[in-house]
Amino acid sequence: MMNIPIDFTWLEATALACVRITAFLVIAPPFSHGTIPMRIRAMLGAGLALAVSPVVTDGYQRLETGPFLLALTGQALTGMLLGGLVMVLFGAIQGAGHLVDTFGGFQMAQAFDPGMAINGAQFTRLFQMTAIVLLFASDGYQLVLAGLFRSFDAVPVSGMIDLARPAEALVGAAGQMMLSAVQIAGPLLIVLFLADVGLGLITRVAPALNAFAMGFPIKIALTLLLVGFVYIALPGVVSALADDAVRLLLGVTG
């Protein structure tokens, strides 16, 4: 009979790493896109866990059934927390698109996109889709994964992340997301705000013109004319957000 030895220590450590990585891939962009099937994310998580197995098995001690199940839960929670931080950070691009839709008069055409799991109008979906494409095209996703892999050095698979640090980082990331969204769409928002002010002044001077009736087509035309300048800046924004995501992951687990 064939005797195949099984290293249960390696198997346990790799399984715990697989749980953390898969939980991260389910939540963090660009892997969280709905067009990527869950089985593909699970297979990718297993493959990446095999790649980091030499790191996670170093110094790992086998656990009993109860502690092992508790460690599985801890790794799933750790992966979800780290993925949530990245998701919130990249939400700045979606937020910028939402601001453009709101101030440009496109909000009436909002709809739910099941692929990206967002509810927004044209520019919300366009900006989010562009960010996902840029993450893959610029290898930004590799930086995000590198930050995840570095977390195994600070928080071993048998350990548990300090929940206070991700909670504090999540609050900071949410504030940074809102600030970044305003900075991305800021120039266009200023133009649209000045257009509203101008239409209000025209209405005061000549009420018979009914300037606000012309406001919607004017603001839509201004948005379509000037949104290209915001769109051109997206590659640099995505690159900066990828770097911020890596620093955030290292800061939480470091």
Summarize the structure.
With 254 residues, the chain is mostly helical.
Outline the structure in words.
With 254 residues, the protein is mostly helical. The chain has one domain. The protein is built from eight helices and two strands; from the N terminus they run αααββααααα. Strands 1-2 form a two-stranded antiparallel ribbon. α1 crosses α2 and α3 packs parallel to α6. The radius of gyration is 23 Å and the shape is elongated. The model has no long low-confidence stretch (mean pLDDT 81).
In order across it, which strands form the biggest sheet?
1-2
What average pLDDT do the residues reach?
81
What distance separates the N and C termini? Answer: 48 Å
Radius of gyration: 23 Å
Domain count:
1
Number of strands: 2
The H/E string reads HHHEEHHHHH
Which structural class best describes the helix and strand composition?
mainly alpha
Q: How many helices does DSSP assign?
A: 8
Shape: elongated
Low-confidence regions: none
Please state roughly what percent of the residues sit in beta strands, choosing from under 5%, 5-15%, 15-25%, 25-35%, 35-45% or over 45%: under 5%
Level of helix content?
A: over 70%
Query: What can be said about the biggest beta sheet?
Result: 2 strands, antiparallel
Keywords:
single chain; 254 residues; mainly alpha; 2 strands; elongated
Topology:
Blueprint (H helix, E strand, L loop, with lengths): L7 H20 L10 H19 L8 H40 L6 E3 L4 E3 L1 H16 L2 H15 L9 H42 L9 H18 L1 H20 L1
Antiparallel strand pairs: 1-2
Helix pairs in contact: 1-2, 1-3, 3-4, 3-6, 3-8, 4-8, 5-8, 6-7, 6-8
